[in-house]
Amino acid sequence: KKKKKKKKKKKKKKKKKKKKEEEEEEEEEEEEEEEEEEKNKEKDYKKKKKKKKKKKKKKKKKKKKKKRKKRRRRKGNWRWRRRG
């Protein structure tokens, strides 16, 4: 009976080790994900800065004043001129 109990204890130890290993792996994965998120945030921040710089480069276009066409007054014998 004592031997059997010892075996059971060993199994428990193995289980504990497995649990610890799994937890460590999970923690590592979480840390990696966090690092990736931080990198992405930095990239996004840099992109936004670049966009802002581009916006600063834009200049306002000057509005052109519309030139009014002067209406030509017909002088004198315009009927004959129309015929060609």
Q: Can you give a write-up of this model?
A:
- The protein is mainly α and 84 residues long.
- The protein contains 2 helices and no strands.
- It has helices at 2-57, 78-83.
- The longest helix is centred in the middle third of the chain and has 56 residues, at 2-57.
- The radius of gyration is 42 Å and the shape is rod-shaped.
- The N and C termini lie far apart (131 Å).
- The mean pLDDT is 78.
- Residues 22-37 have a biased composition (Acidic residues).
- Residues 1-84 are annotated as: Disordered.
- Residues 1-19, 46-84 have a biased composition (Basic residues).
Oligomeric grouping of the chains: single chain
Ends apart, CA distance between termini:
131 Å
Helix content: over 70%
Mean pLDDT: 78
Order of helices and strands: HH
| Helix segment tally | 2
Tell how many strands the DSSP assignment holds: 0
Spans of at least 5 consecutive residues whose pLDDT stays below 50 are none
Task: Calculate Rg over CA atoms.
Answer: 42 Å
Q: What spatial form do the alpha-carbon principal axes imply?
A: rod-shaped
Biggest sheet record = none
Strand portion: under 5%
Q: How does the helix and strand content classify structurally?
A: mainly alpha
